[in-house]
Specification:
A: alpha/beta, 5-stranded parallel sheet, 23 helices, B: 384 residues, Rossmann fold, 6-stranded mixed sheet, 42% helix
Chain lengths: 580, 384
């Protein structure tokens, strides 16, 4: 055959209809009413995170076993991953697209793993620098976060703290069995690598505040809310009635719990922390008394469960009407039963007394943890207050120009991550007011999902293509067909053992467990280059990113708009798109 | 070496000797013994290639044509309903210029249901772009298989080797089976283009423009015309190797005969016997056996039939509403002849009825005695 000339009608290159790219001439793109698009978005977990953490980015690094990179990702948005990795109420996990499938990714455990196993330094957001000194008063999570981001943006920060050490409630409010001091200290050390000048044991008064205001371009107030709110019932002054925060802070008061019958009034984390601390101090019996039911308790669910496992009993729908005793010494708390009625203005069911005679519960120690309020310092009188807190706008601005506030001093939710969020927004607000060349629009563009959380890293760097405002929602049917990867069990210290010591209750994931848990993350909103869009496209018109990276693209002239690429995208990055 | 075997067995043996790499087929009477025999050999490790289990003849052809595009030698076999079900994929096989070889065992098409010989099933696939060889006996069926691989792989067109139900498929005859070395010497190793390339993915049978489509059709037509010469040459080479060749058409009998009988397939053998008897009676009738149907050997047919005054086409098929399909084709081949002979079609053996020498003789007498030939076919109803 080789010696015979091949006529054109036998030439394989011309006779066999085969296309090496697409349907070539058949421009079916004109048929479509939609254009699939590659749009990277915000994951629902990130949109739900008040701190705005890039959870997907951290999970991808942790999956590779690169905990340094994972930590660096967390540090882009928040200075306290070691703290949040332990005590955050993880709203991210309530938003995970894996809920209802194999269960939410344990993001909190991942954040803790990044902080525990990784090493990273905060990154300077150099381009935004403007070198205007700012004073921050109070070094709780709000103040620390504000100082951290301002310092990253180039502003030198003077940080004033009344206590002996920085950290606020993180160091003297949350007990070590939930948040060990070493973990807090590790987070703090990274902050001190920035131009943040910490002054401890410095009480601020009207005079010193005026000096601070003079020497700084702006002041951020984050003094917290550690004023005890009394119940205003008879007998509160008896020996044996103490406030929750005072009990947690004072070793003398804690010693009173030994062999005591303890009651704790309140349903928040401070109440449960006090109850659990009392157990660890050798209390004979610890009862938490709460006027609503468990569903209404402000304390985090996992803490309620842990307390229950340790032997704390929670009595619902009761309220103290008096503390009784003899010779100035507490002997019992007088209780009435409550029932719940239609919600009040704040939306919470209203507890009202059941019309029955009070009963008495004997006790040696009553810890009142029914809430705290900001101290009504005279130097704060000039600012506008609202419902017992200092009024601020969305950027932490108070009623006085140049004065900002956040944390428990303001009406934010009383939690570490919400304080972080307030500090971060105020840092942006302060930076905006000091530079004058940024507008709210620029921040709106990096708001994560519906907000208010935003990405400070994206604000400075504006990554192309990413649509922070959009939240990734992959096709639920596609998720149903995604092979499950079962959650890692988070180990916990045995309740019988842990109540005998101050050992940390929740144990972290080891690196291999953390990588396995991170690998469960769907990476909603972030393309991982899985090629599913390309593989499933029946027309073969989805093109991969070029060598330099970038997006998958759709050849519009051929795309019929079937949107299979979008429906098979596990991350919700490919989307059906709108009109062509 | 000569063996006493059925046509199906002879075909299967020839297929095995051609070393196919992929065989995808689906059982259907009367083809099934080919498939079974190949399966037996595969199970015994004697086939060499792979048998693919498929869910239908449509899939069988899809598998074969795809395999052929990967550059391997492929074979399938079917009949009747199976061939009809394959119809869509037959167009793909030829349109993609594959070299699939098929043994097509003629069988009646339903309805009504029957199992007998009738050529309408393969002739219905006339326009699918497949070459077709109609075989007279078991030996020619086996020989044509070996030739078919060589032809198909040279011209990049699929080919059907057509044998009739029962008369060939299940009847036993002595068959000369060459040695494997002889077949290997005749049939070169497969050298088809490999159209699937993992590093350079392609889209087979893409949508094309009107002009591109027209271009592909013209190239296929040119390949068909080219194939006539390849078929002739390969048959000649086969004769040199094995001592048997068949030609595009086979002409026997006196050039001054009063009538030429045109036959295909097994009716030819019967006609040979009948004409020998008529010759004893002094009636001179020539015989033209049409072997290659697609590409149609117009020149060979015309050269064979020109100069005679009368042509009688006897055939076991019908294009309902017209006549026997070979008859129409013979007429069309002769129409531009300076002095074309008159042509009359006779339908014999439709539905597998027996065509015996007496029936052939009746055709001859009718044709010789007719005043004028008619345009429609004459029904020669046979015995069961």
């Amino acid at each position: 055959m080789a010696d015979r000339t091949c006529p054109p009608c036998l030439d394989p290159e011309t006779i066999i209809p085969i296309s090496r790219n697409t349907t070539a001439v058949f421009k079916t793109g004109s048929w479509t009413a939609v254009r699939p698009r590659f749009v990277e978005k915000t994951s629902p977990c990130r949109a739900a995170c008040p701190a705005g953490n890039d959870i997907v980015g951290a999970a991808r690094a942790a999956t590779r076993g690169d905990f340094d990179a994972a930590l660096a990702v967390f540090l882009e948005e928040s200075p306290l991953p070691g703290v949040c990795g332990r005590v955050c109420y993880h709203p991210c996990q309530t938003a995970c697209n894996l809920i209802g499938l194999d269960g939410a990714v344990n993001v909190r455990a991942l954040e803790r793993a990044a902080a525990d196993h990784g090493q990273a330094a905060p990154r300077l957001l150099s381009e935004a620098g403007c070198d205007k000194p700012v004073a921050v008063v109070g070094s709780g999570p709000a103040g620390l976060t504000c100082a951290y981001h301002l310092a990253r943006l180039g502003h030198p920060v003077t940080l004033m703290e009344a206590a002996e050490r920085a950290g606020g409630l993180m160091t003297d409010g949350i007990p070590g069995f939930r948040l060990p001091l070493a973990a807090v200290e590790k987070d703090l050390q990274r902050i001190w690598s920035l131009p943040v000048n910490l002054h401890t044991q410095r009480f601020v008064d009207e005079k010193s505040l005026a000096v601070l205001a003079d020497e700084h371009a702006a002041v951020f107030l984050s003094l917290g809310a550690d004023a005890h709110l009394p119940l205003n019932v008879p007998g509160e002054d008896l020996n044996g009635v103490v406030s929750g925060l005072a009990f947690l802070r004072s070793s003398t008061l804690r010693a009173k719990a030994r062999d005591a019958k303890v009651v704790v009034i309140g349903g928040g984390n401070t109440a449960l922390d006090a109850a659990r601390t009392a157990l660890r101090c050798g209390a004979r019996r610890v009862q938490v008394l709460y006027r609503r039911t468990q569903q209404q308790m402000p304390a985090f669910e996992d803490e309620i469960a842990e307390a229950g496992a340790e032997g704390v009993t929670i009595e619902m729908l009761v309220a103290p009407v008096a503390f009784v005793g003899s010779a100035g010494r507490l002997e019992a708390v007088r209780l009435i039963d409550m029932r719940l009625e239609a919600p009040e203005a704040d939306g919470r069911l209203r507890p009202v007394p059941v019309n029955e005679a009070p009963r008495e519960l004997t006790c040696d120690l009553a810890i009142i943890a029914a809430g705290q309020a900001p101290r009504a310092e005279p130097f704060l009188h000039g600012l506008r207050w609202e419902k017992g807190r200092i009024w601020v706008d969305g950027w932490g601005r108070t009623s006085q120009p140049g004065w900002f506030a956040g944390g428990d001093l303001t009406p934010a939710r009383a939690s570490v991550v919400d304080a972080i969020a307030a500090g971060k927004r105020a840092a942006a607000g302060i930076h905006l007011s000091l530079t004058g060349n940024q507008t709210d629009d620029a921040l709106q563009a990096v708001t994560l999902g519906p907000g208010p959380a935003f990405s400070i890293a994206a604000w400075v760097e504006c990554p192309p293509g990413w649509q922070p405002n959009q939240v990734a929602r992959p096709d639920p049917n596609t998720l149903l067909f995604t092979p499950p990867k079962h959650p890692q069990q988070l180990p916990e210290e045995d309740p019988a053992v842990r109540v005998q010591s101050s050992v940390e209750v929740a144990k972290g994931l080891d690196p291999s467990q953390a990588s396995a848990e991170a690998d469960r993350c769907l990476c909603c909103g972030t393309c991982v280059g899985c090629d599913r869009c390309l593989t499933f496209c029946p027309e073969g018109v989805v093109c991969p990113p070029d060598q330099a990276g970038g997006d998958y693209t759709v050849r519009d002239e051929y795309c019929k708009g079937c949107s299979i690429c979008a429906s098979v995208c596990v991350r919700g990055v490919m989307e059906p798109g709108g009109e062509p | 070496m000569r063996y006493f075997m059925t046509g199906n067995h002879a075909v299967a043996t020839a297929v095995r000797q051609c070393r196919p790499q992929v065989v995808a087929a689906y059982p259907i009477t009367p083809q099934t013994p080919i498939y079974e025999k190949l399966s037996d050999w595969e199970a015994e490790g004697k086939l060499g290639g792979k048998m693919m289990r498929v869910e239908s003849e449509h899939s069988a052809m899809a598998a074969c044509l795809s395999a052929s595009l990967t550059g391997v030698r492929t074979f399938t076999a079917t009949s009747s309903q199976g061939l009809a079900l394959m119809h869509e994929m037959l167009h793909f096989a030829s349109g993609c210029r594959t070299a699939v070889v098929m043994a097509a065992v003629n069988r009646t098409l339903a309805a009504p249901w029957a199992f007998w010989s009738d050529q309408t099933d393969t002739l219905s696939q006339r326009d699918t772009g497949w070459m077709q060889i109609y075989c007279e006996d078991n030996q020619e069926s086996a020989d044509s298989i070996i030739q078919a691989f060589k032809v198909a792989e040279e011209v990049h067109l699929p080919i059907m080797v057509v044998l009739e139900a029962n008369f060939i498929s299940h009847f036993m005859e002595p068959v000369d089976i060459p040695t494997q070395e002889e077949v290997d010497a005749f049939l070169p190793a497969v050298a088809l283009p490999r159209r699937f390339d993992l590093d350079n993915p392609g889209y087979v049978s893409p949508t094309v423009t009107q002009r591109q489509y027209e271009g592909y059709r013209q190239l296929s037509q040119e390949a068909m015309q080219h194939a006539l010469e390849v078929i002739r040459r390969v048959d000649h080479e086969f004769g040199e190797c094995f001592g048997r060749s068949y030609g595009l058409v086979e002409m026997t009998g006196a050039p001054d005969a009063d009538l030429v009988l045109v036959t295909t397939a097994t009716i030819t053998s019967t006609a040979r016997a009948a004409l020998a008897e008529l010759e004893q009676e002094g009636i001179k009738v020539a015989l033209c056996k049409l072997r290659i149907f697609r590409p149609f050997p117009v020149a060979a047919v015309r050269a064979a039939l020109e100069g005679f005054s009368r042509v009688a086409v006897v055939e076991r098929n019908i294009s309902l509403g017209r006549e026997g399909i070979f008859c129409s084709e013979i007429k069309a081949a002769l129409v531009n002849s300076p002095s074309p002979p008159k042509v009359q079609g006779y339908l014999a053996g439709i539905g597998g009825t027996n065509v015996d020498p007496e029936l052939i003789k009746r055709v001859v007498h009718l044709a010789l005695e007719a005043g004028e030939f008619g345009d429609g076919p004459l029904w020669m109803r046979g015995e069961p």
